[in-house]
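FW: tagging you since you asked about this chain on Friday. Here's the raw sequence from the shared folder, copied in full. Didn't touch anything.
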Amino acid sequence: MPLVRKNPWKTLQSRVMFAACAACTVLIIGVLGLVTVYLFSIGFGATSWEFFAADPTGNALDPGGMRNAVVGTLILIGLASLIGIPLGLLAGVYLSEYGTERLLPGPVRFVTDVLAGVPSIVVGILGYELLVVPLGNYSGWAGAGALAFIMVPIVARTSEEMFRLVPDSYRQASAALGATRSQTILRVVAPAAAGTVVTGIMLAIARIAGETAPLLFTALGSRFLTTNPSEPFPSLTVQVYTYATGPYPAQRELAWAGILVLISIIFVVNVSIRLVTLRVRRSPA
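HL: got it, structure written out here
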């Protein structure tokens, strides 16, 4: 068998591209590391037990804590996820598994792409007109609905792409064993794509966790601790925005602590979802 002689020019091209990819990766990791260190250096010093145990005092010189905002953010994320994740997953399953049989998936996919690019402030205004005005007051339900509206297209499009990555041989083998279409989706396709679908869900959660504009128009915010979504509802993003744009140093310092806590919440949620998904994938069917 004759030896294949390497082309020096192609070898050089390959090495240059590998070096460029490695350099970009190191650059991205370095920027992320600098941002993380900067946030910790400023926000960690302002984080204390009072931050989690006390509510805002209303005194600009002694602002208190952000317990109400932390609890409110967790509730809003939970409510939005209960609405947005199932709708997005079902839409993704429809577009991936049933999209070749009807004409409807084309327009649905186009509308989903358009909705994914709608600015959040537009979502906030729509939420105000469609939810706040008919209900007669600002509320956590309106805020959760606006955040869910942002989640649905992200989860739908990412889950569709991830389901499409599952080889068709899996579906054919399941059908050959007598499984129905729904059984194939639930027991074969979904577990195979679970890890990558979770990535899309985490992106959606991270997106809504940092949104401020929709909540300004829907949930508004509150200085008091409340778990009733029918009232104006507190959130970390609105509280951070209010403090960070204010003229008082004590409030701005507390805003940095709020940013650090918000990022920590997103990190914990992402890790928890990944651990649960990994456990489900390893468990016997």
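FW: The chain has two domains: 8-46, 49-282.
HL: agreed, and The two ends are 48 Å apart (CA to CA).
FW: great, closing this out.
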